[in-house]
Amino acid sequence: MIRSDFGSSNTKTFALSVSVGGLSFALAMECRRPLRWARGVLRHGARGRRLRGITKGELAEACAAATELKKSDCFKVLSALAKVVQDTLNEDCKVIVPGICRVVMRTKPPAKASKKIMWGHVVCVKARPARNVVKIFPAAALKQAV
Asked: Which fold has domain 93-146?
């Protein structure tokens, strides 16, 4: 059950209460979106915003503050790191960035054209060529930090 209380003209408080068997759970949150966004608010956080990642500029600025280098030098380091990872992936198919991640390139085999039964219907599957897929696995230190 979703209940909406009008606090002020721009903000609304949503309360969600669920009872299963003898257990009941309650969740209350405030957002600045209209009631039709209630489902998105429950999915994307209490304030109704989608989460945004860090930009290259913010990353370079943080590196500059931590290492006492210029921001432009940090941009060059990030660009060089991206170039080295791309070149190494083309040669070795595996790159390890210590403390952050492991980048692996895998070759998926080609798929033959065939007919499959899906949901009770016969579906024609098109042939696809072999393709390279890049997969990224986080390092153990990164998993423990989060």
From this structure: HU Protein; Chain A (4.10.520)
Residue 54: predicted pLDDT: 87
What are the pLDDT digits (tens) for 63-81? Answer: 999 998 999 999 999 999 9
Global pTM exceeds 0.85: no
Boundaries of every domain in the chain: 2-44, 54-90, 93-146
CA distance 87 to 129: 23
Per the CB < 8 A criterion, the answer to whether 27 and 20 are in contact is no
Q: What is the 3-state secondary structure (H, E, C) of the chain?
A: CEEEEECCCCCEEEEEEEEECCEEEEEEEEECCCHHHHHHHHHHCCCCCCCCCCCHHHHHHHHHHHHCCCHHHHHHHHHHHHHHHHHHHHHHCEEEECCCEEEEEEEECCECCEEEEECCEEEEECCECCEEEEEEEECHHHHHHC
**Residues 87-110, mean pLDDT to the nearest whole number:** 90
Q: Measured between alpha carbons, how far is 60 from 74 in angstroms, rounded to an integer? A: 5
